[in-house]
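Before surveying the methods themselves, we first show a specimen of the format, giving the amino acid sequence and backbone structure tokens:

:::
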Amino acid sequence: MKIFFNRVPRSEPYGGGNQFLAKMVEKLKNEGHAVVFYLEPGIDLMFIMDPRPGDIGYSAEHIFAYKNRFPDTKIIHRINECDKRKDTDFIDAILIKTAEIANHVVFISQWLSDYFHDSGFKGNSSVIYNGCDKKNFKPQENKKLNNKKIRLVTHHWSDNWMKGFDLYTEIDKYLDENNADFDFTYIGRYCKEYNPKTTNIVSPLHGKSLADELKKYDIYVTASRWEPCGMHHIEGAAVGMPIIYHEDTGGIVELCKNHGLSYRTFEDFLASIESIKDNYDSFVDNIDHNFLNIDRCCDEYYSVISEMMEDS
């Protein structure tokens, strides 16, 4: 079977979707399928990662034109974005328009699925959660909390303010004004409005370098709002950290509720640190590492693709 992806994998820090793309391409090739990144005759299945126009791949208009020319070509559309995530007003319409011609749509969280169904989407769909590379992102043996000074960390590829920079700014102010029993490290790109004084800043990392860095810390923090699912908290949990996450963080809640705590106010956030500190081993033991594995994720996509092609 010849499978087309409208995006090309990048070997650099480039967000969770890129990591899934690289691993899914590898999975399909290992199963004996041909994978192409250019629209050409003979494609059996088009795998749409992101239908927005741009210079990094084919957009929705190219997909529509190919489908009109070769109407028997099947389409699977992975949706991992929405307007609510970044306070925009154009993404939903593009995604819904592309989803309408897809044979099957995969949402990366139940929250995102509900969001688009509430917006009017009626097609065939399922929910498949993200995972990360278990070869790199795996827990340390006998991981223990650093009781001298708890090490908090977060990391993001996007520099959008909605990734949680309000909390990260408040953490920095708190550390600047108080003799706290924790410190905070930010890894990745950040927006120009974020000007930390006491936060440790680490340049963007990915793959094994990121995993090795994350293993140095005790508790993972995400203040991202309305995240469809994301990858950052998955990588944090996969190396063995409990998660503190905002109540309004969309699909993140679905993967973190069993091994972390939510917060709404900064006082809640500080209380969550203490609660995790007092029950650290229990939170760590509750992390489901098999579920966080990207191999589980790719296997579920492969099952959907196989069922789609059997129905041809």
